[in-house]
Amino acid sequence: HDMGVVAEVADRVLVMYRGEKVEEGTSDQVFHAPAHPYTRALLSAVPKLGAMAGTD
Q1: In the chain, which end has fewer C-beta atoms inside a 10 angstrom radius, N or C?
Q2: CA-CA distance, 52 to 6, in Å (whole number)?
Q3: Is 15 within 8 Å of 31 (Cβ atoms)?
Q4: Neighbour tally for 42: CB within 10 Å
């Protein structure tokens, strides 16, 4: 689930949930306009650079 690597090296992305294909498209489509709720949840779980800055 290293989405940063996927975004950098993949031309196309296939998202699976419970062993079933739920979304497929170009990396740009999947990362910038995810259609399936699982894809959106997966992408929202990716830590954002600097998100923890200033917290102890």
Answers
A1: C
A2: 23
A3: no
A4: 18
